[in-house]
Amino acid sequence: MLLRVRAAVAQLVAGLGAGAGGQPPAEPRGGERGSPAGAAFCRPAFLQLTPEELRRADDHAGRAVQSPRDGRRRLPWSTGYAEVINAGKSQHNEDQACCEVVFVERRPSPRGRLPSGEGGGELDRGRKGFYFHYWALFDGHAGSGAAVMASKRLHLHICEQLRDLVDILQDPSPPPICLPHDARAGPVELSQVPLAEDDGEVPNDAVPRFHLEKAVSHESLVIGAIENAFKHMDDQIERERVSQRLSGGCCALAAVYLMGKFYVANAGDSRAIIIRNGEIIPMSREFTPETERQRLQFLAFLRPELLGKEFTHLEFPRRIQPKELGKKMLYRDQNMNGWAYKKIEEDDLKFPLIYGEGKKARMMATIGVTRGLGDHDLKVFSSNIHIKPFLSCFPEVRVYDLTQYEHCPDDVLVLGTDGLWDVTNDKEVAGVVMEVLTSYEPNDPCRYTMVAQELVVRSRGVLKERGWRLANDKLGSGDDISVFVIPLGGPGNYT
Amino acid sequence: MLLRVRAAVAQLVAGLGAGAGGQPPAEPRGGERGSPAGAAFCRPAFLQLTPEELRRADDHAGRAVQSPRDGRRRLPWSTGYAEVINAGKSQHNEDQACCEVVFVERRPSPRGRLPSGEGGGELDRGRKGFYFHYWALFDGHAGSGAAVMASKRLHLHICEQLRDLVDILQDPSPPPICLPHDARAGPVELSQVPLAEDDGEVPNDAVPRFHLEKAVSHESLVIGAIENAFKHMDDQIERERVSQRLSGGCCALAAVYLMGKFYVANAGDSRAIIIRNGEIIPMSREFTPETERQRLQFLAFLRPELLGKEFTHLEFPRRIQPKELGKKMLYRDQNMNGWAYKKIEEDDLKFPLIYGEGKKARMMATIGVTRGLGDHDLKVFSSNIHIKPFLSCFPEVRVYDLTQYEHCPDDVLVLGTDGLWDVTNDKEVAGVVMEVLTSYEPNDPCRYTMVAQELVVRSRGVLKERGWRLANDKLGSGDDISVFVIPLGGPGNYT
């Protein structure tokens, strides 16, 4: 389905205005600083909302569910998407989404470094490279700036990281441990690497073989590329946050489909699951003060100055009162998973670094997620204590090899922000997926959109006198909710 | 089977000479500093080896397998045990083992703190407390001192930690978050805690209830007690290593059976699995430079002074040669699971903190395990760089609730040092277990010893011209091998 891919790429270029199609994203060394970087509030380009529709989507009272307009063939693979705004917790919908097909073009060879000047030019004209498919959700907090920018740029950073790997990933032999000399301080020159099916270039000096040499897989190079792309995205937000008036931070969940494999990268508390033949396969885990307790406590223990004399790295089951000094209280430190009693000392009266349980768990009494992009200016309320040193912008990447299994049209990858998962668990999501898909023909391309809409509607609930309520009369999610439903099987779905 | 338990306790007291039966282990504040702390080389007390047998067990050429002598009812629950010395890698067998039934006696109430002076005395005379069963393996390195001492003391440290919890663990209501005032700087006085079925003591001031209060389970108190017991054991080795001439360090794997649950605590590269109805349930994971890479790199990144200008916290797939400066090489740092290329700089020529793969992976080119006890004086060869700051003495504790499943006499918990697992994988161990058990009557108490012996023999192999060989002619384990086979089911096995 190359035609569809090309169309998608064209749409991508049109939608972004700059930097798409394998060109590097706006970096300080680039010439794009004056271009619109996309920090202004908007909804995903693929929704193609008119101003009137945008106003309706922004209505906290109505909370109308949004999906791509005609529901047909809008997104690659007939991907389903739906979103709804929160019930008033923030002015705008702070979730953002992106779905693209991106061409990764091999970086041109530097002039004058090849035995003959012709080779490089020929390769450039042939646009050597490959495509990857990309879906991502960004759940913003404390403003939408970081989420908006990440939704417009993260895939370009991934593309940029992959450009150095075009030849290596297409060569079945193991990746070279070391690449030959590159006199320029610029990016890696893969055209200098000896490749089995390439243009016969020979490096200046052959890489010797070592007795102890770790084998590194192609897969782990893609994982490394995605990890570093998240880091570059975070760096770009840091650099441009003042000039672009970028506010807040965001969780990021991205799925990259490349050469038969899904790479699901998660930094934050969004979640991805695969539903295959009714079985649930978790494709991510959440990063919160509770799940990352030991990393955070370890950092605070080693760098107590980051706590600003306001916090203790120890965890206690509740606040301690000054009058309890000298009593024994349950605690745990960074080395423990269990609990023990300790005598309360003066230092223990400080606020615990990690405090609260479940959705109410907070780090430094401020933030409930511990990985993501942005938040460079976030401080503890009415203090000068920075939160960012404790946050990680690195995702955990899980890999799913599509070629290892037979997939039917009902097998899907579901990506959702926490607005979905807070009220609907994995099993319930799998139930809705199966229920909705069976009511449509397997070749009906709008069936995945219908699933996404149903997931959003069921998690939002219905507005009653006592607020948004689920079918069981429990409170629905008052948060922004965004969902991708990506089919894994069925004829003609992949390129 | 209280009789057997009492007999075991008597044996324990006789075997140790000091400190057993709920008395605190030798601590600086105790009066036992002059007593034999057990750093001298020996074999496990329960083997009851004569001097002649000890000489035979120490023979690297014969490598005779050792088990408790008559193989009947020697160890609690008819536990099977077998061990064999290494093929010459160290003078002595540096593995150690311990199997005990320990009475945890409630700490006596402090005089003068009760409303009436009588209560405490009565309680003391009643010896209020509970028993726990205990099996542990210690795999020593660079000397046997740490392993020998840990094998004689760790269970007493666990006992000591549990003494404060006697009332709390026996009370079905949730553990109190905070215990009342204890004017003395000594241990927690649980007799001051209000207990449903206790002697009606009332604390001086009631603990208020807080809106945000984390529930802590009894189970997590036991986990915390075991974790802190490992820490106290390590501290004791540190304090007494000079006076007792304690050398080296050791991995520690301990199984504690308490109130229906197994707590399996592991610090190092020993391993525990449960085999239940043919299914394999891992009860531990290994802690090595590879599995703990990110923790170690993170510490080195935050505290580069610990690397002594000799090491880099980055990982490379092989050593870099000075002539490769300026080339691009695969690397990963503490945030990454994947690999990427970086330009080689001067600093990258230092030796990588983590280097090598599998059994050859080393931290600081020195040690292949990253958790355990001892090693306080370990340094990088011919340098002043200490290894200990990177090692953790804290175990990971996994819990298995025996009451949640029906167990048959063929269900077992297997503990083994790496000498076993290096050549025999989980599945092969499960195969041997099933094969041997079926050839004995279910009520034959020596069947678990037969399993342990067979596991050791198969991993050691048979001495041929080209060394110790397995049945498939591959090299057998040249390491010390120690195995416990603990039955989980069968009539009359538990007390």
TrEMBL record, chains A, B:
The taxonomy runs: Eukaryota, Metazoa, Chordata, Craniata, Vertebrata
Name of one Pfam family that matches:
PP2C
Q: Which SMART domains match?
A: PP2Cc
Alphabetical UniProt keywords: Signal
Q: Drop me one GO molecular function for this one.
A: [pyruvate dehydrogenase (acetyl-transferring)]-phosphatase activity
CDD domains linked to this entry:
PP2Cc
Q: What organism, scientifically named, is this protein from? A: Mycteria americana
Please give the residue ranges the record annotates as the region Disordered.
17-37
* Signal sequence interval, chain numbering: 1-22
- GO cellular component annotations of the record: mitochondrion
Transmembrane residue ranges: none
Q: Does the keyword Signal apply?
A: yes
Name the chain's protein.
PPM-type phosphatase domain-containing protein
